[in-house]
Amino acid sequence: MRLLHFLVLANLVTLPAFAANREFSASYDNSSWVYNGTMLECSLRHQIPGYGLIEFKQQAGELEEGHLRLDYARSIQASLGELFFATPANQLNNRIKDGWQFQFGDYHDGVKFSNRQVRQILDNLNSGLAPTIMHVDNTDRTMHIYAVVSPIMFQLSYDNYSSCVANMIPVSWAQISRSNVYFESGSTRLTDEAKQWLNYVMEYARDPAIRRVELSGFTDSVGNFRDNHELAGSRVEIVRNYLVNAGCDERPLANNEVSQGRAKNRRVEIKMYR
What we know:
Order of helices and strands: HEEEEEEEEHEEHHEHEHEE
Number of strands: 14
């Protein structure tokens, strides 16, 4: 297998005589990398003309992931593929680095890459190498397909993507959508930690997909029921006002509750719904 790689990538137009081959890659003029980023999600994608789209993405509080979406017309379902790294054909030293083998999913699933594999692909692109996907065509087993992820025009978009990832909030949707802001006993004062958490809530609340933000107040068992009920309501209003003043519209629904307990019940519970 290594010999085959060498023969192919020593010159991306010099191919083994015993097999038909077809290469998909973006030319210098049409190679592009598209970056998009917010505080909640950063993405980087590249079109391989005639073959598909490869995308790398990281969401707040989650690991990076990658996905190859296929539009190549020939059937490759259940095929075994391999990804390896080579220098572009216009460079003098077309050296090869090993990658890994993988199994294609069905046409709609394409190929998913793990966090470790995404890092390996991006690091090699950043070094100027071209990740190359190789597999046979299921409709013609003598044909080898080579799909090249071009490093041309990669650097600027990757720098933006890296900066986006470094500045994302460190909290995932799973963490923020069911969370709590805690108070001292008998107090309605927001601590610095509580304010920081509400700032994270605010970033998610900006998402148009958020349908509802529900706030529920809880107290500990110290004091009488009436006072605790009023305290729970006051805490909800404090949290609500903080979010509104930070720019959240007035969608949150307050559902004041009183619960028995100690420190874990001196809180406002936040539930977010998409």
